[in-house]
Amino acid sequence: METKKYSSYAQIERELEILKIEKEISYQKLVYGVKKTKESFTPQNIVSDLIGTYSSAIPYGTIVSTAIPFILNKAVPFVKSWLSKRKRGN
Fold this sequence. Notes:
Layout: H1 9-40, H2 43-54, H3 61-89
Helix pairs in contact: 2-3
């Protein structure tokens, strides 16, 4: 890396400000990437991805790959609420 030469403190301050903004942009990109990755690890998305990958090998694969996410979106909250009620009942 080549050493930069500055002729004034204003140039140094400007360069530091640019580096600070670039650092913040990189950090926000990282936060966004982690958020998107976290969102993709839901049971619905995992099953949908698996079924989508193997839909050609499954009989009636396109119907199954369409129905499963819909069923999971309805079933998972129902099972969660049922389990929480069951725990409270004991």
